[in-house]
Amino acid sequence: MIEIFLYNSIEIIKYFIIFSFLFQGKFYKDKRQWFRIGICLIGFIIEIYLIQRKVSFVSVFYILFIVLLLYDGKMKNKIILYVLSLIGVNYIDTAMFVTLGYLIKGKIWWYYIYDAGWIKIYANIISFIIVILIVLGCRRFVRKNMLNRKIETLQCSLLSVAMLSLYFIFIIMMMTMAYGKPENRARLYNIIGLTFAIIVACIIVFFLHSNRLKHQNDVHIETEGLYGESLGLKLAYGEQVHDDYEKVRQFRHDFRHHIAAMEGLVYGGEYSELEKYMGQLSQKDKELNLERVRYTGNFMVDSIIFGITRDQKFKEVDFRFDGGLPSNLGVKDIDICGVLANALENAMEACLKGNDRKAVIMKAGCYENMISFQIKNTYDSSRYKALAGGEFYSSKEGDGHGYGIQNMERVVKSYNGRMEYNVDPEWVTVDIFLQQKDEI
Q1: Is 351:317 a contact under the CB 8 Å cutoff?
Q2: pLDDT value at position 345?
Q3: What letter does residue 357 receive in the DSSP assignment?
Q4: What average pLDDT does this structure show over 404-420?
Q5: Which run of H or of E encompasses 193?
Q6: Which 3 state secondary structure label does DSSP give 377?
Q7: What is the SS3 assignment for 356?
Q8: Which sign does the torsion angle of CA 149, 150, 151, 153 carry?
Q9: How many CA atoms lie within 13 A of 401 on its CB side?
Q10: What angle do CA 258, 262, 267 make, to 5 degrees?
Q11: In angstroms, what CA-CA distances link 154 with 68, 73, 149, 208, 438?
Q12: Are 92 and 127 in contact (CB under 8 A)?
């Protein structure tokens, strides 16, 4: 009785440590908390009674009952994390039973044949210490309450099946060593082979699914970056438009003074001074027109062009634009940014590596229900053969590059468009066509 009480008490405390410190779980905080604790204590007494009656498996459900009843969090998360914890704790317990069996009797399967008595308590205490060490070592990697976070059910299920299958193989091997007769071993080997195949299949699916999730996460991060970039470009361009407006407003405000000054020159017969004064006003008007950043007539596209071409590292680039676009493109701003910002920035960077001339020519237009962009740039002519062969992906060093063109291709495909490259000894040209969507 005492052995059962101690063993199960230690076992329950293991899960309290795992859920409270490793998974950062929190207990329910309400008036029914003491009622829940009372129910758990009654359940503990019932569990001890059933274990005495050789119904040992009830312990698995009792600990799950405690987790579900006392810890706050999503039901699915609590069940998934409990299953993973149960498998992990059983791995540690089994390792201790095998180790002590070998040290005491010289047989790793000794525990599975004989009633271990107090040896079972000693092994459980050692595994308890190991659990504490693992929790302390892994706790710094878990910063948030895992019971309320989003958990990938498929990944956890595959991992659980693989771990259970491996544990099953180990137990079968112990049984084979203890009881396996020659006529039964062939059947046991077949079971082990089938279980091993299940493990391999689960591991393969696990990594394939993880890779898919990673790709989705990369796309999500790229999209968030593009959203922030498009917002930043809009704000920067908006500030420039505001500055332009202020300059024009000031010029118009002062215009009545200029009229009065010119009238005075006319009345005084100072025609040469009048001509000089009018020339100065004309020059001021030209300067204001040059400072006004207007390219296509579309606010988002103008923002992208302005945001990239104003970068100091591109100050040597001769940028020219021709064409015009409607105010509503029928394309989401974030998608326009994903295509156009990447294409224009790539062109600007490529022309900086050119031999002599550094120029980018951009054209834009709207034909029926298609939006078209053409971006031409000079480049390093020594790369002519490579580019003519289709090597347009990023040549930048380090990680994190190459997503730009992938994102461009993804967006173009989503708008039933196309993207074409053309290379000649002087220019690289990219033509982008996007089909407008009415609902945008």
Answers
A1: yes
A2: 86
A3: -
A4: 85
A5: helix 182-267
A6: strand
A7: coil
A8: positive
A9: 9
A10: 150
A11: 21, 19, 15, 11, 38
A12: yes
SS3 345: helix
Sole residue written with tokens 């070998």: 102
Give the Cβ contact number of residue 416 at 10 Å. 12
Nearest to 343 by CA among 426, 260, 404, 281: 404
Q: Mean pLDDT across the stretch 258-279?
A: 76
Can you tell me the distance from the alpha carbon of 285 to that of 210, in angstroms, rounded to the nearest whole number?
A: 60
361: which 2 tokens? 């020519």
Residue 369: CB partners within 8 Å, gap ≥ 6? Answer: 330, 435, 436
pLDDT in tens, 318-368: 888 888 888 888 888 778 877 888 888 889 888 888 767 889 999 999 888
Q: Which residues contact 173 (CB under 8 A, 6 or more apart)?
A: 192
The candidate with the shortest Cα–Cα distance to 346, out of 298, 394, 403, is 394
Euclidean distance between CA atoms 237 and 235, whole angstroms: 5
CA separation for the pair 366, 343 (Å, rounded)? 18
Side-chain-side CA neighbours of residue 143 (13 Å): 0
List residues bridging with 364 in a β-sheet.
323, 373
Residue 390 CB contacts under 8 Å (≥ 6 apart), including other chains? 421
Strand order in the sheet with 370-378: 318-323, 359-367, 370-378, 427-435, 418-423
Instruction: Output 431 or 224, whichever has higher pLDDT.
Output: 431
For residue 26, the one-letter residue type is K
> What burial class does residue 101 get, using C-beta atoms within 10 Å of its C-beta: 0-12 exposed, 13-18 middle, 19+ buried?
buried
Residue of 387, 388, 380, 385 whose CA lies nearest to 358: 380
Identify the three-state secondary structure at position 232.
Answer: helix
Nearest to 13 by CA among 160, 127, 146, 182: 127
- Length of the chain, please? 440
Global pTM reads: 0.50
* φ/ψ bin of 324: left (φ > 0), alpha (ψ from -120 to 50), beta (otherwise): beta
- CA–CA gap between residue 64 and residue 348 (Å, rounded): 61
> Could you tell me the sign of the dihedral formed by the alpha carbons of 390, 392, 397, 400, in that order?
negative
Query: Which pLDDT score, from 0 to 100, does residue 133 have?
Result: 92
Nearest CA among 297, 341, 356, 299 for reference residue 323: 297
